[in-house]
Amino acid sequence: MNTNEKIIDIIINRRKALKLSLSETARRMGIPKSTLSRYESLERQFPLNQISNIASVLGITADEILGLEEPEDISSSEQTLIKAFNELSIRQQEQLLKLVKYDLHDEIFSTVELMSKADDKFRDKVASYAKFEYFEYEKNLEQKNKGKQNTAG
Predict the structure, then answer these.
(1) What are phi and psi of 62, to 5 degrees?
(2) Who contacts 118 (Cβ-Cβ below 8 Å, separation ≥6)?
(3) Distance from first CA to last CA of the chain, Å, rounded?
(4) Which are the contacts of 34, defined by CB distance < 8 A and separation ≥ 6?
(5) DSSP 24-71
(6) Mean pLDDT for the stretch of residues 33-43
(7) What span, in angstroms and rounded, lies between the C-alpha atoms of 73 and 38?
(8) What is residue 42's predicted lDDT score, i.e. its pLDDT?
(9) Predicted local distance difference test score (pLDDT) of residue 34
(10) N or C: which end of the chain has fewer CB within 10 A?
């Protein structure tokens, strides 16, 4: 298992490879920037209960951070995707991340690239459509779950 210093080294290198600022990384983790700064400067031990959180933000596994699995290099297509994602507004990034949770991975690459090249009016239209699709998905999922509960009960 990696030492705290090695864990921090992996976190910093991955964050920089993704071109994520300290502030943005902390925001995505849901922690204060000052806390993440203290971890990165080794003023504080990185807590193990935050490993899966930072791994998710950095797009790697907790095992890679902990040294239980070798980290993979970022491919050029992943770098292109990350660059396009980072060019989106915070609101658009959050909406896209919500969609990713629903196994839309195949469509995400083209959507991110399209959104990064689009003007604000088009982005807003796509965001509105995505919200509509998301709510439709949620509604259908809820109906399925109710149906399962009714047949089980």
Answers:
(1) -60, -35
(2) 126
(3) 47
(4) none
(5) HHHHHHTS-HHHHHHHHTTSSPPPGGGHHHHHHHHTS-HHHHHTSSPP
(6) 95
(7) 26
(8) 94
(9) 96
(10) C
Given this model, what pLDDT does residue 137 score? 77
The secondary structure of residue 89, as a DSSP letter, is -
Residue type, 113: E
Among candidates 61, 58, 31, which has minimal Cα distance to 47?
31
pLDDT tens for 66-109 read 988 776 666 777 777 777 877 888 888 777 777 766 655 555 55
Residue 95, token pair as written in the block:
């909406």
CATH architecture of the domain covering 4-66: Orthogonal Bundle (1.10)
pLDDT at 120: 74
Contact in structure between 22 and 40 (CB atoms under 8 Å): yes
How many Cα atoms occupy the beta-carbon half-sphere of 152 within 13 Å?
A: 6
Q: Residue 4 pLDDT more than 70?
A: yes
Q: Which residue has the tokens 């509604």?
A: 139
